[in-house]
Amino acid sequence: xxxxxxxxxxxxxxxxxxxxxxxxxxxxxxxxxxxxxxxxxxxxxxxxxxxxxxxxxxxxxxxxxxxxxxxxxxxxxxxxxxxxxxxxxxxxxxxxxxxxxxxxxxxxxxxxxxxxxxxxxxxxxxxxxxxxxxxxxxx
Length: 139
What we know:
With about 140 residues, the chain is mainly alpha-helical. It folds into two domains: about 1-95; about 105-139, no CATH class. The protein is about 65% helix and about 0% strand. It contains four helices and no strands. The longest helix has about 30 residues, at about 60-90. It is elongated, with a radius of gyration of 20 Å. Residues about 110-115 and about 125-139 have low confidence and may be disordered.
């Protein structure tokens, strides 16, 4: 049983290391958010799962499972909100997309206003067929 726990702990440590490396090495906010959310969540979940093999007991199992569920529910939402704030803040707050970004899939920077919400129109229309790549890097 301890071998399974050690394998999970080593695997979790590897994923946490990859997440940290991705945050340091990747060029822009969306890529960094992807690395930290995906690899970091999996790494911490594996480390928490390894605890149940090192310290068998219902209390540790319940806490580990609660931690894993909490991470799986909150990490994607937090990454989405931070990425959205960075994207819409853009050059004004010093955040730019990577210069090799092929397509900017959120070409409009319209703020959801009470007028748009009240008259039933969509404040965030879907992307058109025009490619609006490298919108942030031109500034």
